Each structure stands twice: as C-alpha cells, then as structure tokens.
Amino acid sequence: SHPLEKADLVVCLGGSPVERGLEAAELLKEGYAPRIFISREQPPESLDILRARGVDFPESHELTYEMLEAFGLPPESLIISDDPVSSTAEEAEQLRRVAIAEGFSHLIVVTSPQHSRRAWIAFRHMFKDSEVSVSIRPTRFSGFEPERWWKEPRYARRVILEYMKILWYLWIL
After folding, report:
1. How far apart are CA 92 and CA 98, in angstroms?
2. Pairwise CA distance, residues 159 & 51, whole Å
3. What's the CA gap between 27 and 50, in Å, rounded?
4. Which of 64, 65, 47 is nearest to 56 (CA)?
5. Do 146 and 113 form a contact (C-beta atoms < 8 A)?
6. CA atoms of 115 and 30, how far apart (whole Å)
C-alpha cells in the first residue's frame, strides 16, 4: 500500500469486482480522483454461444459498472476498457497506453490485499520509463487478514497461488 494522494484516475483491476469496486467508489467519493477505469477481463469461454441462445449473461466489468452506477457515480466518471485482458501484466500494459494517451500523471490502482505485491511488480515494470506515477491501494473491503491468512483455506490458497505468480512475474518481466 502506498500513501494516498490526488490522482487523475482510479484503476479498478479485474477480479474480485465487489471488494475492488467498493474501494474505487470510496476513493472517488473521497475526492482522490475524478474518474474510475474498469478493467475488462477475458469473457468466459462459450459466452458467445450462451448469448446466441438468447441468454443475457453479464461480464464482470458490466457488473462492476452497474454497482458503481447504483452508488450514484455519474456515468461520465466511469471508463470501461474496450479491450479484454487476461493478466495483471496485460492490465498494466493497457493502462500505460491509456495514461500516456490521456496525459495522466498519477494513477491509484485498486486491488485485493493479497494481490497488491504482484500488481506493484507489474505496474512498476510497465511504468518505469514513463512520467506517470502509480500508487497501489489494497481494498479495505476484503476479509483477508495478513496476520492470519493461513487459518482460512480460501486465503491460504490465494496467497500460495500469489507467491507462485510473483515468482513467474519476477522471471518474465
């Protein structure tokens, strides 16, 4: 977690849309940035077949958008990515293009507590040669407790998986 300061954009990373969306909404309401960028994950496999059969099944970015709109955030403050991404590294690459094209100088990246270290590795790497600064903000709305993650099976699995992914990122980036 980095100290909070005013930014041009809050970035709501894909995955865990409720806890990350809640944090992004709070940061906007607290005046840390005027807009939120909502990452778009790769759609689930066979979604096109489901929709072709007349079933309207929302993607996670659509659910995040609806949640933020229900909080009263104006639609013009919400930016949805057009291009789906499949990893945090791809999100960082996408945000670099957006930040440079829009002339942003500071981003606040919202993620889950157990994901914040890997997010920082990806964004630090992607923005190392740019004028854009990035702060990582773990959501306050997670049940994750760093002091006792191993006592809860779902968090133990997530942390172990995160360590494997961190090693992968350190190798490939």
Report:
1. 10
2. 35
3. 35
4. 47
5. yes
6. 23
Q: Which two tokens stand for residue 32?
A: 């840390």
Instruction: State the pTM of this model.
Output: 0.91
Q: List helix spans (H) across 39-139.
A: 47-52, 60-70, 88-102, 116-126
The conformation of residue 151, written as its DSSP 8-state character, comes to G
| Phi, psi values for residue 83, rounded to 5° | -105, 125
Q: What is the pLDDT of residues 137-170, one digit of tens each?
A: 999 999 888 788 888 888 888 888 888 988 888 8
Which tens digit of pLDDT belongs to each residue from 86-129? Answer: 999 999 999 999 999 999 999 999 999 999 999 999 999 999 99
14, 75, 96, 117 from 140: Cα distances, Å: 16, 24, 25, 16
